[in-house]
Design brief:
303 residues, alpha/beta, 23% strand
């Protein structure tokens, strides 16, 4: 008998197949409103969210006071695999008791399959943030986690900032993250808008909806009750100048690195072991993520 054949979980009544890449069950959820996590502590989940789209995520959900949620950056050209998750191996190795990794449901909206990055922005009439928050809240109920950290590097930093802004007390952890769609690589932003918002003016969209497309303006416009830790390699000049710098300045930190007056915005500029963007080593990630967790916990205690 094939151990990877489709089965029905007796605890949940849900159909389960197998994810070969991660070596865990693939749970076919019936809907977001009926998410069941009591069948598998570790699994990839897929849930229908309407219009033929699904919300896909990896979840390892054991008891914990803190839940880690990750978002991927761009897929590599020629390797546009969906669903694409981020930092699963990292948090597996760190033995984190509770973490989730989401794929961007915007990507399958491109019928040509050419979209490599969409920053979890959705399109006309669809924003995936609501669906992600529902899944996160359900996972918090399963794990008992009162605190959530949203993690993203490069393009994944943008949804981390967006989601954290909606969850008071949460942390957005960015490693060389995107903060403004207008400052993203033109080839990436132009492809996204042409595929997902055909006929719309990208400049007008970005200007009209900063809470969706521009985290520099969004965070500057109103006080947000979350914590941000932004790690940036000094040799990644494009992201340092286009994303790290403008966001840091908007938070009132004029030095190359430092902490905002509120104590809730931390900026770490460091000399990377490898030059360029997206060259963060495992050691560098663990170091800065550890510093971020310590600073976040201290900030939570002081509130």
């Amino acid at each position: 008998m094939d151990q990877h054949a489709a089965t029905t979980n007796p605890h949940t009544g849900l159909r389960e197949t197998w994810n070969d890449f991660y070596g865990v069950p693939l749970v076919h959820q019936k809907s977001l409103g009926m998410l069941r996590f009591n069948g598998q502590a570790t699994a990839v989940h897929t849930a229908p969210i309407g219009s033929g789209l699904t919300l896909d995520f990896y979840a390892h959900l054991k008891r914990s006071d803190e839940l880690i949620v990750t978002f991927p950056g761009a897929a590599r050209p020629g390797k546009n695999i969906y669903p694409l998750f981020a930092r699963v191996a990292t948090f597996r190795a760190m033995k984190s008791p509770a973490f989730m990794a989401f794929a961007d449901p915007t990507i399958p909206m491109d019928p040509d399959g050419e979209l490599l990055l969409a920053w979890f922005l959705g399109g006309p009439g669809f924003d995936p943030l609501d669906s992600i928050l529902k899944a996160v809240r359900k996972a918090q109920g399963k794990t008992g986690a009162e605190h959530v950290v949203f993690v993203g590097g490069s393009g994944g930093g943008f949804p981390a900032l967006r989601l954290s802004a909606l969850v008071p007390g949460s942390m957005a952890y960015l490693h060389e993250g995107t903060t403004s769609i207008a400052r993203a690589l033109p080839v990436q932003s132009e492809r996204y808008f042409s595929k997902i918002w055909p006929g719309w003016d990208p400049v007008k969209l970005i200007s009209a909806f900063p809470e969706r497309f521009d985290m520099v303006r969004h965070y500057r416009r109103r006080p947000l009750e979350n914590f941000v830790y932004f790690a940036q390699s000094e040799d990644d000049s494009r992201f340092r100048e286009s994303h790290y710098g403008p966001f840091k300045d908007a938070m009132g930190v004029k030095e190359d690195a430092g902490v905002s007056k509120s104590g809730s915005r931390h900026f770490a500029l460091y000399k990377g072991e490898v030059k360029g963007h997206g060259k963060v080593t495992p050691k560098e990630f663990r170091h800065h993520f550890g510093n971020a967790m310590q600073a976040w916990r201290k900030w939570r205690e002081s509130r």
